[in-house]
């Protein structure tokens, strides 16, 4: 299994899940230090793993990654592509260099991954490419122009590849389209809007998306949507475009932006930030902590009552 985007969020959750069932892994992302951590996590789960620091936007980098995978393990059966970056801002206020790097990473580099993976699969007689798109490959939202344009492009590319793969037995192309997921992609995003973004409710876990990905690896499907609101949003966008356009701006500002102000910044669009690379973004309550707090409630109330000065 090759995982591009293995150091954070969904890719890291999937790498762990593949490792737990003993799959042999080749892990790629830009940050060498975090990749070494993820390799160690996979090894601790009992898997053989190779980490190959890779910037997928660099010339020849994806081919070199495939070579490293084949050198180590003989062939690639599954290539999971999750790597992406995000940028908030009105289109005209987002610097062109930021918009272009988002498209370069999220669409053009995804195409480079698909090209390399499909050529290797054809030569080897089969393989499964899993592209992680987004519900934003089916609907649109303001302030995310580069990301939305890329995800629509990736959706179109993925569907073309599925149609072409019909002529190459054994070669499968799957699209996984999550809604909101609790990962740090929101904190890591570039921001030229002034307000920090957040995942709008309902938010699912990266582990839930990882399960859908593992399922695709075992039983390839055209597209898997992960997120309870995805269908509702897609129906609203398609059937009632006028109403959708009236509501989407206010809803985006209410549900998908925090009140926290931020100066303009490029986030991880141009370079990795190892300190922000974790599986969960901290957008969901920690249920364990919540249960402990509820469990400790009677004691806390008791001691508060005992402290009352009567
Ligand atoms: N989180 C959500 O709510 C959500 C919703 C729908 C779809 N998705 C999609 O799910 C996928 C994973 O997102 P996530 O939320 O898990 O994001 P994330 O936590 O920010 O992880 C993104 C991964 O991509 C890697 N990456 C970024 N640029 C790269 C480059 N140039 N070369 C190689 N690796 C690169 C990052 O590592 P380095 O920075 O070290 O390179 C990191 O491992 C993305 O395709 C995203 O669009 C996410």
TrEMBL record:
It comes from the Bacteria. It holds the Pfam family adh_short. GO terms for cellular component: membrane. Keywords: Oxidoreductase. PROSITE patterns: ADH_SHORT. GO terms for molecular function: oxidoreductase activity. Belongs to the short-chain dehydrogenases/reductases (SDR) family. This is Short-chain dehydrogenase. It comes from Micromonospora echinaurantiaca.
């Amino acid at each position: 299994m090759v995982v591009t985007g293995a150091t954070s969020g969904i890719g890291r959750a999937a790498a762990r899940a593949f490792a737990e069932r003993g799959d042999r892994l080749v892990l790629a992302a830009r940050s060498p230090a975090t990749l070494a951590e993820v390799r160690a996590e996979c090894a601790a789960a009992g898997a053989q793993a190779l980490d190959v620091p890779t910037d997928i936007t660099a010339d020849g980098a994806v081919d070199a990654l495939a070579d490293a995978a084949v050198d180590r393990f003989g062939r690639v059966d599954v290539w999971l592509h999750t790597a992406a970056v995000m940028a908030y801002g009105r289109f005209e206020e987002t610097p062109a260099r930021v918009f272009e790097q988002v498209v370069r990473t999220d669409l053009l580099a995804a195409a480079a991954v698909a090209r390399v993976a499909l050529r290797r699969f054809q030569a080897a007689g089969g393989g499964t490419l899993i592209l992680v798109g987004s519900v934003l490959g089916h609907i649109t939202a303001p302030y995310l122009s580069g990301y939305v344009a890329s995800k629509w492009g990736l959706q179109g590319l993925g569907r073309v590849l599925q149609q072409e793969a019909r002529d190459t037995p054994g070669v499968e192309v799957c699209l996984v389209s999550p809604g909101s997921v609790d990962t740090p992609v929101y904190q890591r995003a570039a921001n030229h809007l002034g307000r920090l973004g957040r995942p709008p409710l309902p938010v699912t876990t990266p582990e839930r998306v990882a399960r859908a990905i593992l399922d695709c690896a075992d039983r390839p499907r055209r597209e898997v949507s992960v997120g309870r609101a995805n269908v509702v949003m897609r129906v609203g966008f398609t059937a009632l475009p006028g109403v959708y356009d009236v509501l989407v701006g206010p809803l985006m500002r209410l549900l998908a932006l925090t009140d926290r102000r931020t100066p303009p910044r490029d986030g991880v669009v141009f370079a990795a930030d190892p300190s922000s690379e974790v599986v969960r973004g901290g957008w969901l309550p920690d249920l364990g902590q919540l249960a402990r707090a509820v469990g400790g409630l009677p004691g806390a109330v008791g001691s508060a009552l005992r402290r009352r000065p009567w």
